[in-house]
Amino acid sequence: VSAMTGLYRRQHFHIAFSRQNRRETWFSLLFIVGLTGVIYCQNYVPLQFLVFSALVLILFWRGLAVAMLALFLHAALATAGTMHGMGPMRLIPHSTLLGRVIYLQIYLFSTLATIYPIGRALLRKARLEKLNEMLANNSRDVITRATLQGLRTYCSPSVEAVLGWSAAEMVGGQVEGRLHPDDIPIFRDLLARLRD
Description:
Blueprint: H1 2-7, H2 10-16, H3 22-40, H4 49-62, H5 64-83, H6 97-138, E1 144-146, E2 152-155, H7 159-163, H8 167-170, H9 184-195
């Protein structure tokens, strides 16, 4: 886990600990530390699954850099707890200390193998959304996004230069309201095919 954390780009950690994100990042990390502490201070209930859920939540809320850092903190604390004979790995029947540590490492690896690809996909999605927004906002063509009911949800700023209406005037209206009457049947047919 530490190797993956070290390989991850520094810029994502700088963003995570920037002034505007610092509070949420520290809250996420402290939450994982507290949750790990609760799980590894007892030997009665196998609560390890709660950490995975919390890490996925952090991944979607704070991003891959914070989720990986949280996983690193969890790994350090879970290893210490397991080495001292505490936590859910103690519940594995007939296990030795070495066996419990191996089980913990398998759990940590499978958690990393799940979280890392999801995080990378989220980063790619965010980059593509930013690129699409940049292209739409700087294009000379009018770009419109609408629901399957024909309600306009986005209109590029170029609509003002091309049609004379502001983007704010266009968003929220029905697409059919601004179409040429000859194009309305074609548009309705297109919407019907998209709904199917």
